[in-house]
Amino acid sequence: MEIESTQTVPIPTVKRFPLYLRILKQKKEKGATSISATTLAEELDLKPIQVRKDISCTGIEGKPKVGFVIDELIASITHALGWDNATDALIVGAGNLGKALAQYGGFESYGLKMVAIFDKDPEKIGKRCGNLTILPLDSINQYIKTHRVSIAVIAVPATSAQAVADLLVKCGIRGIWNFAPKNLKLPPEVVMQRTDLATSFAVLSVKLRKRYVSFGDNEFEEEGY
């Protein structure tokens, strides 16, 4: 069965695919060769029918009393996400966050390879950042054209984010992963994904408070400690 185009896979399903991969790889490391939708659902606190619906987007079919072949499912989900073909990306911003992203080795397991990092601070230019050397921002246009990079990560302060985004678009970047706490205005042909750390922490804080309140923990009351 053919794998459906990623354009037809619902975004909520796409967001769950990496969670499935994590569980599948853990089970494989322990020697398992197959897994049921029920087991995946239990691991992730989902309903089995949701798991089966998600997996159907990969074109993989389970077998009665056996479930899904783990290797096949890993390969199909990886392909559906486009992680089986390495994609090069560059980082703009060699501050603490940019350096951390540049040195994080886990991206390559997702099919993403950080190939360069840029900054405008003369004191940072030429210094090593993991396996990369920090390059001057004014050389980014030539780098993008020479290496045909189409994805960029923005890890600069909010005050600089729009200017950097405009520069990247002008240089030919078509996908932006924005870590800056700033809503960017981009042309419709440019795809952007924003990762807002403050928003994520706010959600965590609210969920944590609700959890303790719902359990009636006397040590953690809704109004504080």
Q: Can you describe this structure?
A:
The chain is an alpha/beta fold. It has 2 domains: about 5-80, Orthogonal Bundle (Arc Repressor Mutant, subunit A); about 85-195, 3-Layer(aba) Sandwich (Rossmann fold). About 45% of the residues lie in helices and about 15% in strands. It contains 8 helices and 9 strands. It has helices at about 10-30, 35-45, 50-55, 70-80, 95-105, 140-145, 160-170, 195-215; strands at about 35, 70, 85-90, 110-120, 130, 130-135, 150-155, 175-180, 190-195. The strands form 2 sheets. Strands 5-6-4-3-7-8-9 form a 7-stranded mixed sheet. The protein is globular and about 60 Å long.
Question: Which helices and strands, and how do they pair?
Answer:
Elements: H1 11-29, E1 34-35, H2 37-44, H3 48-56, E2 68-69, H4 70-81, E3 87-92, H5 96-103, E4 112-119, E5 128-129, E6 132-136, H6 140-147, E7 151-154, H7 158-171, E8 175-178, E9 191-194, H8 197-214
Structure summary:
This protein has eight helices and nine strands.
Shape: globular
Number of helices: 8
CATH architecture of the largest domain: 3-Layer(aba) Sandwich
Gap from first CA to last CA:
56 Å
Beta-strand segment tally: 9
Provide the number of structural domains. 2
Strand order of the largest sheet: 5-6-4-3-7-8-9
Rounded average pLDDT: 88
The major pleated sheet works out as: 7 strands, mixed
User: How would you spell out the order of helices and strands?
Assistant: HEHHEHEHEEEHEHEEH
Do you know the CATH topology of the largest domain? Rossmann fold
CATH superfamily of the largest domain: NAD(P)-binding Rossmann-like Domain
The structural class is alpha/beta
Percent of residues in helices:
40-55%
| Percentage of β-strand residues | 15-25%
Spans of at least 5 consecutive residues whose pLDDT stays below 50 are 1-6, 219-225
Radius of gyration: 21 Å
Q: Specify the CATH class of the largest domain.
A: Alpha Beta
